[in-house]
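Thread: "does anyone have the structure for this chain?"

Original post by V.I.:
We have the sequence but no experimental structure in hand. Need at least a predicted one for the grant figures.
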Amino acid sequence: MLRRHFLANTCALLGGITASGLVNALAGSDKQPLTFPLNSHQAQLCSVLSDIVIPRTDTPGAVDANVPNFIESVVSDWYTHRERTIFLDGLTELDEYCLNKFGTSFLNSSSAQQLACLHDAETVAQAYTKAHPQPVTPATLMGKGAIDQEAPFFTKLKELVVVGYYTSEAASNTEMQYLPVPGRYDGEATLQANGGRQYIW
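Reply from O.Q.:
Generated one for you, tokens below.
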């Protein structure tokens, strides 16, 4: 399977994608991108946020999979001006939230404070989704909704982290498995495993 097809299918599993810039990046568009690199503080925020969304456990986390580099590439080279503005403003608002509520920047806040900040950002994203429901069409039922460049920061962040992670080599080698026959057949199930039921054939 071609990489671009694999990425497109991954996005469909996520319920569609909201950023036209991400669509262009995944499709390998011939567009000549303009580079707007993130500054060091923005890049560090993306690294910390990636680790919060998909931390390292018994499998690699988002940082191990170089997701922060993926985020910077998409935001800097492929996002439209509007999408980039919403994302970068969202990073700034994280600092403003923490400064106003905790008296320190997002990066210098405790883990609990950072999670409280992101919970608030997620609440905003959920409210936006409820206020802008997609019409029910065959396309939306297949997870191919219309592109919404106005999607809020937290929606864009989760989208970038999840797509970046599950299309990385690290995730492909540890989390994604090919099952030629989905499901499981257990030919030696015990009576207890069957809920204590007896079957007479």
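V.I.: this helps a lot. The chain is about 55% helix and 0% strand.
O.Q.: and Confidence is low (pLDDT under 50) at residues 1-8.
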